[in-house]
Amino acid sequence: MQTTxxxxxxxxxxxxxxxxASPHRFRATGAALLGLLLAAxxxxxxxxxxxxxxxxxxxxxxxxxxxxxxxxxSSNIDAASALEQLNAARAVARTCGTTLMPAVPPLRWNxxxxxxxxxxxxxxxxNDTFSHTGADGSTVGxxxxxxxYAWKMVGENIAAGQPDVTSVIAAWLASEGHCRNIMHxxxxxxxxxxxxxxxxxxxxxxxxxxxGRPL
Length: 215
Known about the structure:
Layout lengths: L16 E2 L12 E3 L2 E3 L11 E11 L18 H12 L3 E3 L2 E3 L6 E2 L1 H17 L12 H7 L4 E10 L4 H9 L2 H7 L6 E8 L8 E10 L1
Parallel strand pairs: 7-9
Antiparallel strand pairs: 1-4, 2-3, 4-8, 5-6, 8-10, 9-10
Helix pairs in contact: 1-4, 2-3
């Protein structure tokens, strides 16, 4: 997990990096907070799952002349149900790793964040790549800006392999950095997207959860 100032740093030092479980494989990476790596663990199997996350504080206005992101196709989820589950999690005080997080106000769904999340999940699936760094070196900040979201703070959780919204949210809540993103009091907007994998992909699903606080 990373908290940083605009511009965003390279890919792996991003808010929480970790990976979580599926029925067949448990994989994990480290998590970084201001560059401090946290330990993680891994295992073996054929149908794995992974999660990781990032946060950036600063501001970015989407200028009228800026290149726009590709049009979102589909988030492949029930947005209303996903938002309900995320807000139910935020409504309950919880311990994220070693950090006690109080209950926080509900988030609202944002179409621009959804476009950015869809595009990144599609890119990860198409490239069989699990990373916050996307096409042409994009970051969560540049992706949401290209989608038309003017922000002062953005964050992102990604995951791969979890079969449904409930399981991916549970995986993120079980990881300190991802949990802190979900419980972050300063986020206002959110969107979640999933892209199904194919038989040639490492994972069966590719998830992106984008958070934002607008200007």
